[in-house]
């Protein structure tokens, strides 16, 4: 059995694995796709001490760093269940039917951005269609952008972007904004933020290389309008990869794994880190930090049990 079995090979999982292996304990990592969301990222400018890197390069470096230690990396494996075994060990069941046993488990399965599923969105991903204002906002300095979604993340994004870009157009599907009042008031007070409600985004437009605009349908009149923008920030939710844990662990109403400050979940000996948890602010540097926390939390648990 493993001392620590990490489920997930993104920045949180890689960090957990390195911190665990450095304690000299038997460590394994299961990853459906090593690198996680970082593999889908083009430019990264906020990974502190590295002024610029790119997703695939950082993924290769993460893997290289993990491989400096004695860690079993099991790629292209999906965990489908977690349970307490009769022998006191945790059991992680894989999609291929295999069952791995461990004294402690760190869940770092990350999350995925909810997509609009409209024509052009996939084609122009990272060519104007973005999901992270903290990451990509500065790319649109002085240009017009749209934010899709009028919840807290959409309105926060609009306020954040308004200080950088020329004009922000917020498109909200419903007839009212779902963000907190204080955020809505702030956004409404900004001269370069325009909020359009009852707007259903229908298509991302581009010139073959990058985004040039979008179309939306006014749900009140059924009229279709075009907005010319260089960037589109999709802010309609982050979906945690926690479906397989629903019946096992305490999850928040959004499906995030509830953790304490040491990364401990509701099942003793099971820790979690990164975007799949309730910890706020989903960023590479934040998830790496929480991976370290969860690994040290797991080590503390192991030496006490
Ligand atoms: P993830 O990176 O999501 O990794 C999850 C891992 O778990 C993957 O290996 C996945 O295959 C695996 N997994 C999932 N389910 C299972 C399962 N059932 N069984 C086995 N394995 C499983 N952040 C920044 O700080 N700067 C940026 O510039 C930046 N740009 C971004 C751009 C894009 C397009 C996206 C999508 C995100 C960006 N982020 C950025 C956010 C950052 O990528 C995430 O916060 C970070 O990757 C979260 O790390 P994680 O390890 O928690 O999860």
Automatic annotation (TrEMBL):
The lineage of its organism: Bacteria, Pseudomonadati, Pseudomonadota, Gammaproteobacteria, Oceanospirillales. The chain holds residues 212 to 516 of 516 of the full protein. Homodimer. Its cofactor is FAD. Residues 2-289 form the FAD/NAD(P)-binding domain. GO terms for molecular function: flavin adenine dinucleotide binding; NAD binding; NADH-dependent peroxiredoxin activity; oxidoreductase activity, acting on a sulfur group of donors, NAD(P) as acceptor. Keywords: Disulfide bond, FAD, Flavoprotein, NAD, Oxidoreductase, Redox-active center. FAD binds at residues 265-275. GO terms for cellular component: cytosol; protein-containing complex. GO terms for biological process: response to reactive oxygen species. This is Alkyl hydroperoxide reductase subunit F.
